[in-house]
User: Which sequence fits this backbone?
């Protein structure tokens, strides 16, 4: 990732053994009634509910954020509906979230 | 200036796709979204390839801007409607850029590509070809652009609006949370800066909040309306959203965007840096 970039990169799946290089990674999938939902706007909100970042889910519904220890909510917006899930990240590693939209 | 002068709604856009003299431009850093589907008739601008100088750390110069717009078939009297992904970050940056080079009729699509998609409106993958035009840009309007020396001089006298996330502001993170945290410059913020993340001026669907809500937000955060204001972020595009809100929507006249932003400031030797939350 070039350091003069600021847009969200294309998203991909995050395996459980993904090398986080010591970072807190929040990752997961957006699903709907008929399976994975690509093209959803996935928003990371901090413990106070404030917006922190946003990515667009991949064709397979995948998303990934690099965060810090703490409480996080991930909220997905899609023309078919919205949904959200929360997680408490104690420390580095992959923290999985599943979000269904309808 | 009113909201209608600087923003158009997705509904208006859909009704004006074929209006003569109206040109839609999609501006993105990653243009694969455009290639897969865009607003019908919209011209593609690649933020990195088209708007940044290929060698120096700066934008394209006046001649480069003229060449770009001429090639893409955009005339001085066209009404340009800008939109893009990433909550219009790069589109807002391009808006500021069009203003910098003196384009008169330019507006942002409120909510950008996100709102268009959430509305379930149609996207087209047809190639867009326009006849070349002859575009003439003006000299840069430096009343809306801040440079580093001026930024350092203004500490203690101007408002600084740091639009990065609270964790970037405090120094906990070096980049937005959707990016790996690999940076070399020091973390922190310009002393005395207010931390008003760009997203606070926007609704969840990417549209701007009302002028009243935005005015109240900045006032609550401690912005002194009697002083000039410099907005910055990491590379100057999220802060274009704040510049747009303050200068275009609220009509404050002394507002500059510092496009060097934290990547420049946080790498300068000898300048003051503050750490920690507000």
Assistant:
């Amino acid at each position: 990732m070039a350091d003069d970039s600021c847009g969200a990169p294309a998203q991909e799946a995050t395996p459980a053994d993904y090398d986080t290089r010591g970072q807190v990674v929040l990752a997961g999938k957006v699903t709907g009634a008929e399976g994975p939902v690509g093209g959803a706007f996935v928003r990371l909100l901090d413990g106070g509910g404030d917006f922190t970042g946003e990515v667009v889910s991949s064709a397979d519904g995948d998303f990934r954020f690099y965060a810090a220890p703490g409480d996080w909510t991930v909220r997905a917006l899609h023309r078919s509906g919205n949904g959200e899930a929360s997680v408490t990240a104690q420390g580095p590693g992959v923290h999985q979230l599943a979000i269904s939209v309808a | 200036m009113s909201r209608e002068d600087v923003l158009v709604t997705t509904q208006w856009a859909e009704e004006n796709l074929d209006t003569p003299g109206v040109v839609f431009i999609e501006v993105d850093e990653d243009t694969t979204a455009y290639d897969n589907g865009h607003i019908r008739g919209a011209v593609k601008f690649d933020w990195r390839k088209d708007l940044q100088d290929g060698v120096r750390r700066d934008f394209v110069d006046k001649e480069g801007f003229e060449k770009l717009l001429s090639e893409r078939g955009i005339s001085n009297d066209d009404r340009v409607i800008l939109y893009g992904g990433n909550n219009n970050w790069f589109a807002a940056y391009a808006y500021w850029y069009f203003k910098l080079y003196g384009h008169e009729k330019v507006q942002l699509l409120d909510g950008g590509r996100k709102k268009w998609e959430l509305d379930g409106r149609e996207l087209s993958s047809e190639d867009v070809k326009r006849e070349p035009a002859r575009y003439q840009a003006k000299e840069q309007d430096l009343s809306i652009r801040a440079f580093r020396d001026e930024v350092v001089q203004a500490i203690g006298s101007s408002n600084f609006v740091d639009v990065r996330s609270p964790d970037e502001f405090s120094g906990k993170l070096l980049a937005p949370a959707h990016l790996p945290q690999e940076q070399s410059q020091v973390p922190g913020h310009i002393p005395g800066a207010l931390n008003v993340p760009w997203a606070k001026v926007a609704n969840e669907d990417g549209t701007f909040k009302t002028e009243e809500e935005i005015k109240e937000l900045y006032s609550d955060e401690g912005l002194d309306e009697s002083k000039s204001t410099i907005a910055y972020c990491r590379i100057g595009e999220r802060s274009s959203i704040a510049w747009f809100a303050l200068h275009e929507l609220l009509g404050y006249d002394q507002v500059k965007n510092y496009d060097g932003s934290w990547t420049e400031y946080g790498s300068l030797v000898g300048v003051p840096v503050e750490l920690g939350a507000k």
